[in-house]
């Protein structure tokens, strides 16, 4: 009982054919960020400081889809979003539609602490960033050559998969059902898995005092419409923390929003009395309908858990009693 | 049905949605709305609209005609044009009353809050002026049809003197709006408090996970949000309807198939007197 715990993720829905060296690279980045968090926790840092610090590091590294290396909109631009929540007092901050902010998670933290609001988006968020003097970069800094190529592939695949101007039939809005139109290749959010940019990043921490915090940051969905907001900045969907636990989700944003996935992990603990891993398994099994997603979570008791129904999730975790794990597959 | 009701409320300048929306600190209008179908859990949301006549209808189009759930600001406006929904000049939404409210809020705010200063932890942030109504006037509607299908919709202009780009609880699934097979909920009040308490989802979650009735669940949630911060309307699959709030009052009305109807503003007011429509 007790003690600190930390988990980080780099997205769910991994191409099974991802080259071995890319897998190793992803694990290396996850390990480095995990160790950074562990060092901060050993130094007595508060949970909310640790999640911000770790997510900043993940954003700055181009390997994952957040900050530098973000997925591109249909117009080839970057629109980043992030949120942070401190379980202590359930304070939260979120940002969407950022195009020049080097570390969106830190701007989300500033929204939480220095504005009267919880969520700022697009031009207003950019203005606030300048007012606060956070580091800004030219939009081109965030756009990697690899993602420009991915966008092109996504556009080609999408023209076959779905056209949003045509009403989607059936109950699915995230077009998973349209998948039957291409060979039975693995898909996420209507995109072939090889093109899908899964690597939203997130971190959850419980510190030595039992306080929980969560943060999530993303470039969003490759080939998304301009102005599209996903689950990452939405408190209760992509990110949530309270007295019981902290949760960060990743995967098909629309499925996560419909299932208020992050809040539901906490809600089944709070209202149904389940333990952390039970709660995680419950929501992955019962709340996602046909959607695909994964999540990481920690409890105030110092437990750590993850769950996903995708092909793989980049994740790493550690607890104070010496347990440590870095993995991609089941 | 929901769409018709919320569109009508949006078009009424007495409420803070559509025409009559409150103004940002720059004097502009940024409207947001959300709709959710409890049966399919399909949902649509929009934020940062400045020219769209009926934000709620655009939220519905996002739900039905895109692969996304939530579009905001320029991208949402571009989508509105693509879909050919009615748009007007942004000035259409700005009423003289709201220009005045903004001025009052700015004067009060200068004294009450300077957001460049760190806000003390655990202390509810007061952003509204002493007028009491400056964060109210969001409109919402929940309904259950004869077959037990539930839906919720909410629309707002947000908070008086809000920062440009501020998103409140209204468009956020689980915060200001939520519907599933148990109930449909639309909340109003201090957006930041509603968001962190995931008010709408929590009413449903308490029914689903703790077996509470709609009334118990809503009372539990409203009691756990700081006083003066939240009100909500909710219906359950079996036709129960409730409208609790912990603010001084809430404009509300409800009706059930068996002929019961109620219109009120203050606590436990049951007289059916409509607010004078000619009152400014």
UniProtKB/TrEMBL annotation, chain A:
<feature type="site" description="Cleavage; by autolysis">
    <location>
        <begin position="199"/>
        <end position="200"/>
    </location>
</feature>
<protein>
    <recommendedName>
        <fullName>beta-aspartyl-peptidase</fullName>
        <ecNumber>3.4.19.5</ecNumber>
    </recommendedName>
</protein>
<dbReference type="GO" id="GO:0008798">
    <property type="term" value="F:beta-aspartyl-peptidase activity"/>
</dbReference>
<feature type="binding site">
    <location>
        <begin position="228"/>
        <end position="231"/>
    </location>
    <ligand>
        <name>substrate</name>
    </ligand>
</feature>
<keyword id="KW-0068">Autocatalytic cleavage</keyword>
<dbReference type="GO" id="GO:0004067">
    <property type="term" value="F:asparaginase activity"/>
</dbReference>
<dbReference type="InterPro" id="IPR029055">
    <property type="entry name" value="Ntn_hydrolases_N"/>
</dbReference>
<dbReference type="InterPro" id="IPR000246">
    <property type="entry name" value="Peptidase_T2"/>
</dbReference>
<feature type="binding site">
    <location>
        <begin position="250"/>
        <end position="253"/>
    </location>
    <ligand>
        <name>substrate</name>
    </ligand>
</feature>
<feature type="active site" description="Nucleophile">
    <location>
        <position position="200"/>
    </location>
</feature>
<dbReference type="Pfam" id="PF01112">
    <property type="entry name" value="Asparaginase_2"/>
</dbReference>
<comment type="subunit">
    <text>Heterotetramer of two alpha and two beta chains arranged as a dimer of alpha/beta heterodimers.</text>
</comment>
<dbReference type="GO" id="GO:0006508">
    <property type="term" value="P:proteolysis"/>
</dbReference>
<keyword id="KW-0378">Hydrolase</keyword>
<keyword id="KW-0645">Protease</keyword>
């Amino acid at each position: 009982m007790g003690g600190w715990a930390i988990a980080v993720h780099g997205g769910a829905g991994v191409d099974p054919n991802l080259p071995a060296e890319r897998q190793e690279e992803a694990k290396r980045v996850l390990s480095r960020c995990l160790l950074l968090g562990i060092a901060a926790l050993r130094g007595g840092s508060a949970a909310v400081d640790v999640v911000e610090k770790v997510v900043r590091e993940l954003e700055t590294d181009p390997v994952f889809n957040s900050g530098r290396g973000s997925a591109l909109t249909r117009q080839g631009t970057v629109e980043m979003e992030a949120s942070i929540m401190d379980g202590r007092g359930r304070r939260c901050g979120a940002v969407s539609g950022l195009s020049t902010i080097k570390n969106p998670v830190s701007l989300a933290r500033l929204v939480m602490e220095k504005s009267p609001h919880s969520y700022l988006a697009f031009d207003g968020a950019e203005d606030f960033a300048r007012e606060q003097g956070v580091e800004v970069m030219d939009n081109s800094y965030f756009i990697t050559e690899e993602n420009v190529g991915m966008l092109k592939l996504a556009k080609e695949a999408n023209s076959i998969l779905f056209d949003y101007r045509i009403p989607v039939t059936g109950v699915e809005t995230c077009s998973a059902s349209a998948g039957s139109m291409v060979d039975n290749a693995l898909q996420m959010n209507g995109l072939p898995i090889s093109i899908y940019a899964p690597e939203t990043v997130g971190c959850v921490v419980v510190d030595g005092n039992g306080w929980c915090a969560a943060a999530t940051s993303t470039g969003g969905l490759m080939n998304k419409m301009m102005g599209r907001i996903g689950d990452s900045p939405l408190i209760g969907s992509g990110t949530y923390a309270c007295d019981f636990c902290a949760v960060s989700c990743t995967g098909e944003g629309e499925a996560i929003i419909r299932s208020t996935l992050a809040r539901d992990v906490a809600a089944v603990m709070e209202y149904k009395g389940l333990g952390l891993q039970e709660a995680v398994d419950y929501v992955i099994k019962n709340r996602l309908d046909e959607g695909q997603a994964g999540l990481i979570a920690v409890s105030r008791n110092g437990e750590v858990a993850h769950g996903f129904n995708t092909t793989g999730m980049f994740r790493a975790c550690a607890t104070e009693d010496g347990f440590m794990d870095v993995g991609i597959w089941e | 049905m929901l769409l018709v009701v919320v569109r009508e409320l949006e078009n009424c300048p007495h409420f803070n949605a559509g025409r009559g929306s409150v103004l940002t600190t720059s004097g502009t209008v940024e409207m947001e709305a959300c709709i959710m179908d409890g049966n399919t859990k399909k949902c649509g949301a929009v934020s940062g609209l400045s020219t769209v006549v009926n934000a709620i209808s655009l939220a519905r189009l996002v739900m039905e005609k895109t692969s996304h759930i939530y579009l905001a600001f320029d991208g949402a406006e571009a989508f509105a044009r693509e879909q050919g929904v009615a748009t007007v000049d942004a000035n259409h939404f700005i009423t003289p009353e709201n220009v005045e409210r903004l001025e009052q809020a700015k004067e009060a705010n200068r004294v009450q809050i300077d957001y460049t200063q760190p806000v003390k932890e655990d202390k509810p942030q007061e952003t509204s002026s002493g007028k009491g109504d400056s964060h109210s006037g969001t409109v919402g509607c929940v309904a259950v049809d004869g077959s037990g299908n539930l839906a919720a919709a909410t629309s707002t202009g947000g908070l008086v003197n809000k920062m440009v780009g501020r998103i409140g609880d209204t468009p956020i699934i689980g915060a200001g709006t939520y519907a599933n097979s148990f109930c449909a909920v639309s909340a109003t009040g201090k957006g930041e408090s509603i968001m962190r308490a995931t008010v709408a989802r929590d009413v449903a979650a308490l029914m689903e996970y703790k077996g509470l009735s709609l009334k118990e669940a809503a009372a539990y949630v409203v009691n756990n949000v700081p006083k003066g911060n939240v009100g909500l309307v909710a219906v359950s699959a079996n036709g129960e309807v409730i409208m609790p709030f912990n603010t001084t009052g809430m404009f509300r009305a409800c009706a059930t198939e068996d002929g019961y109807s109620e219109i009120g503003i203050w606590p436990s007011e049951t007289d059916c007197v409509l607010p004078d429509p000619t009152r400014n």
